[in-house]
Amino acid sequence: MVSPSMRIDEGCDLDSDNSVLMREKLAVLIVDDDAVVRKVHEKLASQLKVAKQVQTETATNGKEALDLHLSGSSFDIILMEMDLPIMDGPEVTKELRAMGVKSMIVGVTSRDSQVEKTAFMVAGLDECLEKPLTADKISSLVETLEKKK
Amino acid sequence: MDVAQLKRQLFEYTTLLFHEGFLDEQFTQLQQLQDENNPDFVVEVVSLFFDDSERLLNELAKALDQQNTDFKKVDAHVHQLKGSSSSIGAQRVQRVCITFRNYCQDKNVEGCLKCLQQVKHEYSLVKNKLETLFTLEKQILAAGGSAPM
After folding, report:
1. Which residues of chain A have pLDDT under 70?
2. Which residues of A touch B26 (CB under 8 A)?
3. CA B41 – CA A43 distance, rounded (Å)
4. What pTM does this model have?
């Protein structure tokens, strides 16, 4: 029996409009010194159905994040914890911006101080979110990213 | 007990844990990240949390045992514990961490020691509850049921 209906294959465009071109790849960098947080955020990012391929990478401190960029890597979204050993979030953000990095840098913190969050934003963030991250928070980041294109 | 009864038992137990504040919506986020490709995601993250927490609690005990308490160090450890507990939804642990950090800022050793006891207590409670939860899930799988969401 011939089935006349089209089947959408394993690609990620579930019910999305075929006229909206889905991006090929989304590269996300997660910078946090805690293993539990890294694992959860990495999974959250990799579940996003916004690209044919979502690539995640992690760094455990600010210096690692910087070194990744110095060695040529680039990312669409960087999730940056504020409190990091060796080089903290605001410092790394400043350095990255000074280097000309145009990626969306999102501060992630469990701190409640508005003063600290503002200082972090001033360092060059696109946005600052509170921990813990959720699927919704990350999805809306990607929406913002898409709008900027 | 048949699968239906076991499932009901699990549901009731989980609801109780949420009700009593041991777990919050973040835990639900984790459950939603679990799928056929990652059937053990929740157990993996929680196990990581157990290892991480035990390490941090040891470090905290050591740091608070010193003649001259290095409050920056203590604060850094509590910050990590706060972050990781919030990532898995261990609400009561997270709450004690908030108070703990305030005592760190005030350089109050006694307050810190009290909080350490409290956080150890909350941690062992939530560890116990989660282990029970996982045991119930295993029983369901063993009885031929499917992994509950």
Report:
1. 1-21, 149
2. 132, 134
3. 9
4. 0.85
